[in-house]
């Protein structure tokens, strides 16, 4: 028999759990960091609004292009984009966590994807020369970087003139970046905002590097 005391205890326990969860999310938001490898199960869950097909529709990857993915994690989007640039294109997948890079490398090998280059690196100091890529994308990543402005500046640097950048964001990610904040930060780093798709709480946004003089 369930007593009133038991019900009150369960309710209190539930309330404390909720409060603890909110406190953890707020602390995580104040201290940007990537999703730990130990919690990678969460980044493999379906993403209905910021889907793989939705990313490709806005990014428009073309056969033969060289693309950059920042923060691929275990590769939720990587294989789909890599397939779109076949047979001669490639995707460089840069992640700051070595375990994520190793996991992605294993998954790619098992799937037979040979046009993806997993790289351990920091988005604030990308290991590439200027004008290295035709396009780049990052999903649920920008808010996890301690200096997002520096990361955007690096993306602008390694993209060719006219290069495309797609950023995906979605709640309830504690590091969620609003459209307005993203556009302001990106334009400060030299990007031209083009358009976005989705909802207020889950969207993809596309911007480009302005063509150089004479192009």
From TrEMBL:
The keyword Protein biosynthesis does not apply. Residues 68-167 form the Methyltransferase type domain. Its EC number is 2.1.1.-. InterPro entries: Methyltransf_11, Methyltransf_Superfamily, SAM-dependent_MTases_sf. This is Class I SAM-dependent methyltransferase. It is an enzyme of class 2 (transferase). Keywords: Methyltransferase, Transferase. One of its GO terms (molecular function) is methyltransferase activity. GO terms for biological process: methylation. The keyword Transferase applies. It comes from Haloarchaeobius amylolyticus. Pfam families: Methyltransf_11 (PF08241).
């Amino acid at each position: 028999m369930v007593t009133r005391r038991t019900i009150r205890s369960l309710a209190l326990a539930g309330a404390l759990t909720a409060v603890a969860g909110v406190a953890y999310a707020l602390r995580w938001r104040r201290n940007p960091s990537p999703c730990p490898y130990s919690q990678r199960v969460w980044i493999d869950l379906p993403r209905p609004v910021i889907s793989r097909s939705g990313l490709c529709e806005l990014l428009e990857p073309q056969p033969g292009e060289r693309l950059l993915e920042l923060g691929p994690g275990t590769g939720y989007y990587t294989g789909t984009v890599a397939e779109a640039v076949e047979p001669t294109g490639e995707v460089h997948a840069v992640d700051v966590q070595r375990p994520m890079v190793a996991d992605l490398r294993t998954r790619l090998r098992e799937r037979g994807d040979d046009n993806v280059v997993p790289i351990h690196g920091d988005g604030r100091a990308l290991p590439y020369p200027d004008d290295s890529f035709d396009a780049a994308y990052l999903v649920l990543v920008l808010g996890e970087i301690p200096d997002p402005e520096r990361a955007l500046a690096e993306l602008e640097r390694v993209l060719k003139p006219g290069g495309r950048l797609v950023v995906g964001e979605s709640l309830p990610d504690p590091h969620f970046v609003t459209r307005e904040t993203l556009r302001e930060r990106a334009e400060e780093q030299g990007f031209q905002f083009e358009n976005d798709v989705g909802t207020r709480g889950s969207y993809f946004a596309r911007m480009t590097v302005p063509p150089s003089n004479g192009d």
